[in-house]
Each structure stands twice: as structure tokens, then as C-alpha cells.
Design brief:
Layout lengths: L7 E5 L5 H11 L8 H9 L3 E7 L2 E13 L2 E11 L8 H15 L3 E7 L3 H9 L3 E6 L10 E6 L7
Parallel strand pairs: 4-5
Antiparallel strand pairs: 1-2, 2-3, 3-4, 5-7, 6-7
Helix pairs in contact: 1-2
């Protein structure tokens, strides 16, 4: 009998795991209108790019990206990134973000996201991946009323 994997794999998010996504939302974003299973399903139905972080068969994180427009005016928006609190700080969030940025870079998209102004670990991770703060959205998160930074990462330059 083989040992369960201890390495996180980033794979296309499976519909069977949408219930788990909604459960994690309740833990991660309890104060800010967590997404339901049907909200995740709607995101997939719209064709947005969603990936999961899997430890063996267990989903421990998820992330989603929307890409809009046509070259040379392509934009991407990170819709969500969430990692089970028991697995935070071990690289799953970075791996999920990298998977989203790979998709955005394939389309040469400038990428945007919103992040709570008090979420210093996430802001640091985004900065490490080329994002900069470009705006403030007062009371963006509801019902908590928490503010959000808008962050942007420029599209990759074309190879010469």
C-alpha cells in the first residue's frame, strides 16, 4: 500500500470539490459574504479558469481567474484564492497564484486583484509576484466594511 502524497499538486478544479470550496469559504471569509457552492459552479459555467491545490485526493485550496478582452487589450482578474488555515504558510497559496499567473501570461494579460488592506501576508505574496498597489476601495468587503487595495501586475513584455 502506498503512502499518501505530502506534496501539493495544482490541478484543474473538479466540480466534485465545489462543496469543499464553499466550506473553506465559510472558514476563510466568514465576515465577508463567503461564496456558496452555486457561486463556484457559476464561475466554472462561465468558463473562468479555476485550479485546486490537492494533497493527495483532498482539496486544501482553490483559486480562480477571469480573462477578458483580445490582444493587445487583455485583462485578467484574480477572483479568489483560498487555502485551508491548517495548510497556510506552506506554499500552496503561492503555487495557486503562479498557476493563475501562468494562464494570464499565456494571454499577455495585465492582471488585477483586490485584497484586504489588513491582509499583510497576501499583500507581500502579491508584491513578490510583481503586483503593485494602484488604488484603494473603501468598504469594499461587505458586510464587514473592510477596505481593499486594488493591485496590478503588468502584462509580460513580448519576446524580442
Amino acid at each position: 500500500m502506498s503512502e499518501p502524497s505530502t506534496e501539493v499538486e495544482i490541478l484543474k478544479l473538479r466540480r466534485v470539490d465545489l462543496r469543499r470550496c464553499a466550506q473553506l469559504e465559510q472558514v476563510l471569509f466568514a465576515d465577508d459574504d463567503p461564496w456558496s457552492q452555486s457561486a463556484f459552479s457559476s464561475e466554472l459555467d462561465q468558463g473562468h479558469h479555476y485550479v485546486g491545490a490537492y494533497l493527495g485526493e483532498r482539496l486544501i485550496g482553490y483559486a480562480g481567474l477571469a480573462v477578458n478582452g483580445r490582444p493587445p487589450h487583455v485583462e485578467a482578474e484574480v477572483h479568489t484564492i483560498g487555502v485551508d488555515p491548517d495548510h497556510q504558510g506552506r506554499g500552496a497559496g503561492k503555487a495557486l497564484l503562479r498557476a493563475l499567473l501562468t494562464r494570464a501570461d499565456e494571454r499577455r494579460a495585465t492582471t488585477f486583484l483586490e485584497v484586504r488592506t489588513d491582509n499583510e501576508p497576501a499583500i507581500a505574496m502579491y508584491r513578490d509576484h510583481g503586483f503593485e498597489i494602484v488604488g484603494l476601495r473603501p468598504r469594499y468587503y461587505q458586510p464587514s466594511g473592510a477596505d481593499a487595495h486594488t493591485m496590478r501586475r503588468e502584462a509580460p513584455k513580448e519576446a524580442s
